[in-house]
Amino acid sequence: MKNFFLIAGILFALASCKVSENITVDQVRKSSDLAEMKTYQVITQKNASRGITQLNRIYEQKLIENGFSPVEENPELFVQAIIASVDFEKEVKGAGPLGTGLNTVSIDHSFTTTGEYGKAIFLIQNAKTNEVLWMGTGTGILSENNQLKKKDIQTALDQLLAEVRQ
Description:
There is one protein chain. It is built from three helices and seven strands. By secondary structure, it is an alpha/beta fold. It has a single domain, classed as Double Stranded RNA Binding Domain (2-Layer Sandwich). A hairpin with a 2-residue loop joins strand 6 (about 130-145) and strand 7 (about 145-150). Strands 1, 2, 3, 4, 5, 6 and 7 form a seven-stranded mixed sheet that branches. About 25% of the residues lie in helices and about 45% in strands.
């Protein structure tokens, strides 16, 4: 029951936030123990959504670019990505010309876009103690029309991971 209230509170907070087009980043925790560790293993969920699977691939690619190495056995670190989000729907209105030359008319048009707004949470844990050594979050529109916003997430991860090795 306690977990239900926690999840309900998080979802309420996410739903009440203004939807931003950009993903903003926040480093929540960083440990000096992380500086010496280089090998990792991605923690995967059996029934992970397509979004989580894509997010983990992006995360893993960025870790490799930042000098970490994936291993199958005896990793120093466990890494994973988590999405906490709510679905949204918004109507986009616009006006513009239709046709060419003398046959041009101005029309009003609108369409609906859907997606997920929330947090992408990136964790790095000590594989021996399970202590969280680093956590960063990206908050904003994570997907639109069933497409993960890969470029925005990659940019957010670049900003977050720049702090990991410092």
